[in-house]
């Protein structure tokens, strides 16, 4: 993912919260693995996105909070996990969804949320707002 204005905003918010130099953050930075992120920090990131990007923030979608639940749902219903997650998280590319599914199937897999995932959410919501005119 190339760095975009949305990424710059996400990076600035995350850098402020975790008190790190923005240039140390990349689209591939994993919030729970590479930063000292805890669930409560996601609320602060969400508030920052809402304030600075002027978009509504659905925490479940933006931060992939129910990812494992959706994966179990797909397995229980014998649905293709990749297709199911792609429908739940339309802001993610097919390639990203496939990599998430692969990562989650590994034993003791860590959380997979990256700055690129949050940036994709911001771009997706901005496009919806532009298209519909609704905030």
From TrEMBL:
SUPFAM superfamilies: ACP-like. Coiled coil: none annotated. Residues 8-62 form the Carrier domain. It holds the Pfam family PP-binding. InterPro entries: ACP-like_sf, PP-bd_ACP. This is Acyl carrier protein, putative. The lineage of its organism: Bacteria, Pseudomonadati, Thermodesulfobacteriota, Desulfovibrionia, Desulfovibrionales.
